[in-house]
Amino acid sequence: METNKLNVMGREMQISEGMTFGELAKEFQGEFSSAILVAKQGNTLKELDYEIKETEDITFFDLTHKEGMRVYHRGVSFLLVKAAKDVLGEDAHVVIEHSLRGNLYCEIRNPKVEISEELLKNLQDKMMEYVKADLPIHKKTFRKDRAIEVAKKQGMQDKAKLFRFRRASNVNMYELEGFYDYFYGYMPPRTGAMQLFGLVAHANGLLLRFPDPENPAELLPLQMPEKISNVFMEQMRWCQLMGVSNVAELNNTIVKGGFGELVRINEALHEKKIAEIADQIYQRMDKVKVVLIAGPSSSGKTSFANRLSIQLKVLGVKPHKVSLDDYFLNRDDTPVDENGKKNFEVIEALDLPLLNSDLKKIIAGEKVELPFYNFLTGKREYNGDFVQLGEGEVLVVEGIHGLNDRLTAEIPAENKFKIFISAITQLNIDDHNRVSTSDCRMIRRMVRDNQFRGRDARKTIETWNEVTQGEEDNIFPFQENADAVFNSTTLYELSVLKQYAEPQLFAIDPSMPEYVTANRLTKFLSYFLAAPEKEIPNNSLIKEFVGGSCFKV
């Protein structure tokens, strides 16, 4: 039998012809804290059932790695969908809606059932039956027309509609004990790989709980961010009202010529929400002097701040913009991370005493000269930019630490109004495949960075983990401190961003480490039909990313 010499997890090994990644993984399972879920060869992910044919280096991932956790999410979701069929009947229909701090919010749409402790126990027991039986999960390839028939037969009209827009002639579906489902991405080879999960009632449905990647033997802490959850639920109801809950319905809207109306309604909703926030500020103008706007990367903070300022002016309130970037410490004084790299993301990178001193003086009615941070020299300068608040005037402060009370510790709470802005998408690929909010923001940033900052998609992907880690540390823990939450997502945006992002993603060569993510995003965007941006008004938050905004962004 022929053998090939390969580097596997840093070790030289002889690999027999016909060996699968799963067979090879057994030799390394003891080095992992949980079941191995997927392999990477070169810069391409491989399911464990795949036969090893190339000679590039091989790495294995369990759920402690983000790629492994994605596979684990799909596998456990498959168990839940199958369990609902077995417990509630063939017509049972689970909809996986969105992520809440690492767990998944789901609803059972058919039949209408009360989410009781008994039902959750029955579902979880059934899921655990599959796990203990260590059943195989088979990948089956169908011609597109046959895949549509299978989906319809199992009552999954959402998938049947999605497959209609699929350009490829074949569709891969997964089978468990005769039940077929479609998932965007890879799947564990057997049910025995999914040892830990949980179910708990939440809102109108349930939370599907997952292990903590940092401690795989324990479930993630159960966090219920009420304000963010409410935004998700509001967005979900609005998607249903618009008849655009998934990609197939969005594509159908484009095909039928309804894209322009969808844009106008979405933009009207944004305007209404921004006006409502401006009204809240106006009602507290006897006390509020500082409006703080915070949000993760590519959430549209700058455009939002400009549109909020316009709405405040409509109410007779004069806003003065202040950027937290101008309060950076001189570069020589910037704190460093564990690798000795300057860390501009932490709150300690800001001159907090100076910021609070300036704010207190401004609130007291004094005239204050604002600093300007010169990013070329790495030093703070003063260029004669003075601000003094009069009657009916407020400061609008934009920056990632706006919700952290440490930022403005010396400013009384009654003088502050905090706004959290994020791109919280409720659009799903189909009922069992959600659209990641993080992926949407990464695509936004990729397009903007290429358009206006001279950065290619590879660089955006390379730094994204660092960006999101900064958000986890400095933004998301404080989001419930907000007085108002604004959701900057639009139902239509991925159909517009697609035409800018795809060429950049295709430019990333398989030899590059970023190819794993690029390949995943390319496949993801392939579900969307492209739509023209001419329908989008120039004050839209999306114009901040594709260009043509009437604001200085």
Number of helices: 15
Distance between the termini: 62 Å
| Average of the residue pLDDT scores | 94
- Which structural class best describes the helix and strand composition? alpha+beta
Strand order of the largest sheet: 16-19-15-20-23
Globular, elongated, flat, extended or rod-shaped: what is the shape? globular
Q: Write out the CATH superfamily name of the largest domain.
A: P-loop containing nucleotide triphosphate hydrolases
Our estimate of the beta-strand percent is 15-25%
Overall helicity: 25-40%
Structure, described:
This protein is an alpha+beta fold and about 550 residues long. It has three domains: about 5-60, Roll (Ubiquitin-like (UB roll)); about 75-210, Threonyl-tRNA Synthetase, Chain A, domain 2; about 225-545, P-loop containing nucleotide triphosphate hydrolases (Rossmann fold). About 35% of the residues lie in helices and about 20% in strands. The chain has 15 helices and 23 strands. The strands form eight sheets. A five-stranded parallel beta sheet has the order 16-19-15-20-23. Strands 6-7-12-11 form a four-stranded antiparallel beta sheet, with helices on both faces. Strand 11 and strand 12 (about 205-210) form a beta hairpin. The longest helix has 25 residues, at about 260-285. The N and C termini lie far apart (about 60 Å). About 40% of the residues are buried.
Give a quick rundown of the structure.
The chain is about 35% helix and about 20% strand. The chain has about 550 residues and is α+β, with helices and mostly antiparallel strands. The strands form eight sheets. It has a five-stranded parallel sheet. Strands 6-7-12-11 form a four-stranded antiparallel sheet, sandwiched between helices. It has a three-stranded antiparallel sheet with strand order 4-3-5.
